[in-house]
Automatic annotation (TrEMBL):
Gene3D superfamilies: Farnesyl Diphosphate Synthase (1.10.600.10). Transmembrane segments: none annotated. One of its GO terms (molecular function) is metal ion binding. The keyword Repeat does not apply. It comes from Streptomyces jumonjinensis. InterPro entries: Isoprenoid_synthase_dom_sf (IPR008949), Polyprenyl_synt (IPR000092), Polyprenyl_synt_CS (IPR033749). This is Polyprenyl synthetase family protein.
């Protein structure tokens, strides 16, 4: 596990320096008129949010996927693919914060709330600028691939991956909102939301891009890659949902019970509804969607989850999906290089135990 963490830290350090350099050059390349004051501020906010925190797991997946097929370093196209992945992530976070009305992102103000503070009393202006900032990040994620110094065939294939990932993520956001209209979504719906909203663009796309950069056609292996991506996506989403209620607020940086207050039908909320009955379930249901729900009530729901074995069951489910993802990666050994396969095998078991 220490080796996995070391490699992740190395990828993050190198990429963050590259990401900062990208934004340093972006102002000159964006082509905005000199008279515009709002455009430089938009780029400043995108830069701040993009460089603030983040584990860069997508970047690590990209590089390790390339290593599955080759031991060459600094492959053409990898830097552009990494920038594209993280710019698309920034786009998603900006729009997520608008949809969720979230004031905080990674320990600082969300772009939406930064604009609200700058334009008090002009809600439509703040909303419009935040939407446009997210849109710009999405278009920039494709532009970096168009500018990549790689053969035209590879460039086209990479753009195709990112276009598909972006549209899947938007569809995922749509059905994520639809999910909350179901009083009790079944597990299949939750898995589908996870697959579209996060697994396809956060895990599957980096795997495909890394293999493409290494000169490997991912198509023959797509079924294996999809299985791994979905399993990782499920336990990661389960973990995020779990930490929303059971995490240490000083570590997660968020108030406990946000999903309950917002009425989100997450994996954890579903477990609470199916694992309780009578007055206990009524308490959970009354808290759902109540933004004024007190910390005392959230604390009681946490206690209830412990008493009824719900917390233990959630942890067991996360572990089960992480172990399944690890086993899936272990089955890659006949096709790919042993060291990166070992990375993909170890990653789920390391990740599922993280506290933030």
């Amino acid at each position: 596990m220490a080796r996995t963490q070391e490699r992740l830290a190395g990828y993050r350090q190198r990429f963050d320096a590259r990401f900062a350099a990208y934004f340093d050059e972006l102002g000159e390349r964006i082509g905005a008129p000199a008279l515009s004051r709002f455009t430089p501020r938009c780029l400043e906010l995108l830069r701040d949010q993009s460089l603030r925190g983040g584990k860069r797991l997508r970047v690590a997946l990209l590089h390790e996927a390339a290593r599955l097929a080759t031991d060459e370093e600094d492959l053409p196209g990898l830097d552009a693919a990494a920038l594209s992945i993280e710019l698309l992530q920034t786009h998603g976070l900006v729009h997520d914060d608008i949809i969720d009305d979230a004031p905080v992102r990674r320990g600082g103000p969300s772009i939406y709330y930064a604009y609200r503070e700058e334009f008090p009393g002009r809600e439509r202006t703040a909303l419009g600028l935040a939407v446009l900032a997210g849109d710009l990040a999405a278009f920039l994620s494709l532009q970096v691939l168009l500018d990549a110094e790689v053969p035209a065939e590879l460039r086209q294939a990479m753009i195709g991956v990112q276009l598909g990932a972006a549209s899947d993520a938007v569809v995922g956001q749509v059905i994520d909102l639809e999910r909350d209209f179901c009083p009790l979504p079944d597990e299949e719906l939750l898995h589908t939301v996870t697959e579209y909203k996060s697994a396809r663009y956060s895990i599957l796309a980096p795997l495909r891009l890394g293999l493409l950069a290494a000169g490997e056609d991912p198509a023959p292996y797509d079924e294996r890659l999809r299985r791994y991506a979905l399993l990782v996506g499920i336990y990661e989403q389960m973990r995020d949902d779990y930490l929303d209620l059971f995490g240490d607020e000083s570590v997660t940086g968020k108030s406990a019970g946000t999903d309950i207050r917002e009425g989100r039908r997450t994996y954890t909320v579903r477990a609470l509804l199916t694992g309780t009955s009578g007055r206990e379930r009524a308490m959970v249901e009354s808290a759902l969607g109540d933004r004024g729900c007190t910390g005392e009530t959230i604390g009681r729901i946490r206690e209830l989850a412990g008493e009824r074995g719900i917390e233990r069951s959630l942890r067991s489910d996360m572990r089960r999906y992480a172990e399944a993802a690890s086993a899936e990666a272990a089955g890659w050994r006949p096709w790919w290089r042993a060291e990166p396969v070992a990375f993909f095998e170890a990653l789920p078991l390391w990740s599922v135990d993280r506290t933030h």
